[in-house]
Amino acid sequence: MDHRAVAIIPSGDLDASTAFYRRLGLEVLGDYGHYRILADGRGWHLHLNLMSGWPRQIEDNPFGLYLYVDDVDAVAAAVRELIIDPATPHVTPWGTYEFAVSDPTGLLVRVGRVVDQA
């Protein structure tokens, strides 16, 4: 079996979080009431865990998630109005082509790919 890591993301509103991640291309594989499993069928997996009252203030959420994808522009088009910096996606100094959005709990979600640096 291959190794992989899966993020378990707390959510104060599973429906809002699920709708957000669906826009990024994930679908619900399992719904257990307080816990949902999402995947895109190509390698992205994440779990949403209902945490009532999380976070107390959206700006206090210190966590982040990076989703690697080949077609960054297609994902960006699906969430264009949510992108934090309207000048993105763009190539960063650290060698990625990416953009960032915030999920309903304030979790910073970056979507990007590594660019060839010749």
Automatic annotation (TrEMBL):
<feature type="domain" description="VOC">
    <location>
        <begin position="1"/>
        <end position="114"/>
    </location>
</feature>
<protein>
    <submittedName>
        <fullName>Catechol 2,3-dioxygenase-like lactoylglutathione lyase family enzyme</fullName>
    </submittedName>
</protein>
<dbReference type="GO" id="GO:0016829">
    <property type="term" value="F:lyase activity"/>
</dbReference>
<dbReference type="GO" id="GO:0051213">
    <property type="term" value="F:dioxygenase activity"/>
</dbReference>
<keyword id="KW-0560">Oxidoreductase</keyword>
<dbReference type="Pfam" id="PF00903">
    <property type="entry name" value="Glyoxalase"/>
</dbReference>
<dbReference type="InterPro" id="IPR029068">
    <property type="entry name" value="Glyas_Bleomycin-R_OHBP_Dase"/>
</dbReference>
<dbReference type="InterPro" id="IPR037523">
    <property type="entry name" value="VOC_core"/>
</dbReference>
<dbReference type="InterPro" id="IPR004360">
    <property type="entry name" value="Glyas_Fos-R_dOase_dom"/>
</dbReference>
<keyword id="KW-0456">Lyase</keyword>
<keyword id="KW-0223">Dioxygenase</keyword>
